[in-house]
Amino acid sequence: MAEKKNLTITYMKEKRTVPEEVKTRVKEFARIKKSILNTLEPGPKTIPQVAAETKLDIASVTYYLMSLRKYGEIEETGETIEDAYHLYRLTARS
């Protein structure tokens, strides 16, 4: 029975391949995520500060920060700079 299961798994892997575009996007997301998390390691930063350090545009940084926030990897500190920019930091679990 286990041998039949292994054949099924092998067959499904061959038939259901992941498109190269998806693989590329996942790798790019992981690279950017790592860059942003490394930027926040020393302490809280605003979106423009993260953008400057990662050399990404503000719109991209905003998108990635909101994604990381949604999944609990970062959080707002509750503080703002000049009442305009929220500070973001790593969560305890990051």
Describe this structure as you would to a colleague.
The protein has 94 residues and is of the alpha+beta class. It has a single domain (2-90), classed as Winged helix-like DNA-binding domain superfamily/Winged helix DNA-binding domain (Arc Repressor Mutant, subunit A, Orthogonal Bundle). Helices cover 60% and strands 15% of the residues. The chain contains four helices and two strands. The chain has helices at residues 2-15, 20-40, 47-54, 58-70, and strands at residues 74-81, 85-90. The chain has a two-stranded antiparallel ribbon. α2 (20-40) packs across α4 and α3 (47-54) crosses α4 (58-70). The longest helix has 21 residues, at 20-40. The N and C termini lie far apart (41 Å). 12% of the residues are buried.
Rounded to the nearest angstrom, the distance between the terminal CA atoms is 41 Å
Overall morphology: elongated
Query: What is the total tally of β strands?
Result: 2
How would you classify the helix and strand content by structural class?
A: alpha+beta
Q: What's the mean pLDDT score?
A: 90
- What profile does the largest beta sheet have? 2 strands, antiparallel
What is the radius of gyration computed over CA atoms, rounded to a whole number of angstroms?
Answer: 19 Å
Count of discrete structural domains: 1
> Order of helices and strands, N to C?
HHHHEE
